[in-house]
Amino acid sequence: MQNKQTQECPRSASPKSLSRAGAILFSSLWGLCAGLIASLLAVVTMGVLFFVAGTPTPPELFGDYVLKHIDVGTFIRLLIMFSPNSKTTPLGLALLTMIAIGTVLGLVYAFLVRVRLPAQGARPGRREWVVALLLTLLMTLTGVLLFNDEVRQNHYGLPVLWATFVTDLAFLLDFAVYGIALCLLYRLLLPKQAAENEEEGVRRRRQALSRVGMAALGLVSAGGAAGLLRGYLNEYAAYDGIKTVSNGEKTVPITPNDGHYIVTQNTVDPNPNINLWRLEVNGLVKRGGTYTYDEVQRLPSTSRAITLECIANGPGGHLMGTAIWQGVTLKTLLEQHGGAQPEATHVAFYSVDGYTVSLPLKEVLEADALLAWRMNGAEVPQKHGYPMRVLIPGRYGEENPKWLTRVELTNHFVGGLYSDQGWYNGPLHMTSRIDYPRGSVAVGASVEVGGIAYGGDKDVQRVEVSTDDGQTWNDATLTTRLSKDAWVFWTWQWRPQQAGRYTLACRMTNGLGEVQTGKIQGTVPKGSTGYHKVTIEVK
Q1: Domains, the chain, ranges and CATH?
Q2: Could you give the CA distance from residue 138 to residue 52 in angstroms, rounded to a whole number?
Q3: Which of 51, 261, 375, 383 is most buried (most C-beta within 10 Å)?
């Protein structure tokens, strides 16, 4: 009887102690698993915060940071490499990299906490909580310091300081979720000693259920992250690079809002909430100030036709359009604040998406820059920068920022995305375009040749047309002038007398008497130059 009792398994039996190699293997394995699930939970948190509070996610901020620290040549190579998904693919890779780093940090966490296996109980010890807290604070501090220039953006249009605070707080929440989840999950996944009077079979079943539960949590987190990512991509700015719609062969003088060219740097454009948005005027002005949207519209306003052209617009291109913009001039706005202080040399425009443009204050005032809230009689469309965008005649579109939220006068140049990469930062080049005819024309017929010319804020004084590839030139007639800041329409009557192939070209002279150059220059990085040429068959 005694022998029989001795052979029974004790009810409080514990699993055998693991060898050092076995303990390292199990700790590493469960550390990686806990790190992966904690990373997925952090991704879900980031997605929720983006949709609820408009805070940018760390992968987005990382992308913005990288773009500011590469040159234009590298930027173009990356665009080509990731084409046709040149925005979403890098963002996806950044997200996967973040998850991978979070997974590896689980291994680092396991090494730092050094829990003896089998572990006692499911509750993390003090050392585990301290390490998790330190990891949370270290990751938060790294994000805040590394992305210091990027955190001021907000999808819903919070002012710069509030956007910075909310984004920094989002960092803390993201990484706190990661740290707490890592701490709890790692302890739950570890092999445990049996509780007092607990049978070995019960202990094993409890451990198995814990791990099944963790696997389910991981799947749910992955599904949640995928769902939030799909929701994010549903707002993807797929319209980037849309050209101005042409009406048959002839360009209309005023481009409709839904036909105007659009370029955006964003994967998802901001969608400002007008109740949160503010326009701030500060820096080296006599008196700073802040405006709501209603208050902005009560400022003295003016309307003017202004042409916008993208720096990527080549000869004959349609990445340009003209609208009637209504808003307050920068000069008038600064007068409302007592004017600029004597030491002010530059003006910096900040957008709610983190985009920044800085230009010499004197040049911007001379160009009579406009801060517009209406486009062709309607509120500025969201894709064009609602609730307010900057129009600086004579500058390429990239220096006419959308979604404006702050105007700051400084005594120095403030870097931005394109200027940091090394793109051209000066007055746009003169351009002229032949819109018609196309294809073939009849010998001896009277043919109207027509198109547009644009010289920025320097107006258009003259347009010439050549039918022999620029060897001789003929004066065209300027037909439509909208304003000194808009394109000009021109026509020329041609009666070809002989059949053959003709190369038509055009060039303009601006209000300063400067003639458009025929030197061919690509769009990257200084903007294109050269004549627009069209080949016509005369039959």
Answers
A1: 20-237 (no CATH), 262-421 (3.90.420.10), 431-538 (2.60.40.650)
A2: 25
A3: 375
